[in-house]
Amino acid sequence: MLVRTALVAVTVPLIALLVGSAWAETKEFYLVTDEVKWQGKAGETVVDRGRGPVPEIERYVFIPAFLVVRKGDEVVLRVHVVKGKEHVIRISAFGVQGVRIKRGEQQAIRFVADKAGLFEILCMTHRTPDHEGPMVAYLHVTER
């Protein structure tokens, strides 16, 4: 009886681990950088955050800006910089710090989405309004 109990105690967690990891997938996304620009007509202005009335607004963005994966998935972000001189990507929640990508380049950023929640994918080059930001995309990690 003791052997059977020990066997069950070892086997059940092992099966759960194997089945759980079998559900994990690799999710690959292609992101590009873009620049959105608004320019008013002669004499027309719009209020920009922190700058007051201005005749023109520029913002850098990721396309797409919202991604969804499941907890445990391996995530591969293929970031292609087509607008802007360079972008420095940070995803603090998953240990991605300072991936520098220059215009015309594409780099793959890989990590495991090991926690559920809503997380920011930030460009540190354009993180505030005075640097045409914030340039941010969101990663929603759902429970399995």
Summarize the structure in words.
The chain is an alpha+beta fold. The chain has one domain (24-142): Cupredoxins -  blue copper proteins (Immunoglobulin-like, Sandwich), CATH 2.60.40.420. The chain is built from one helix and eleven strands. Strands 5-11-10-7-8 form a five-stranded mixed sheet, with no helix packed on it. A hairpin with a 3-residue loop joins strand 2 (46-48) and strand 3. It is elongated and about 60 Å long.
Task: Name a few traits of the molecule.
about 140 residues; alpha+beta; Immunoglobulin-like; five-stranded mixed sheet; four-stranded mixed sheet; 1 helix; 11 strands; elongated
In short:
The chain has 144 residues and is of the alpha+beta class. It has one helix spanning 2-23; strands at 26-39, 46-48, 52-54, 56-63, 66-70, 74-80, 86-91, 96-102, 106-112, 117-123, 136-142.
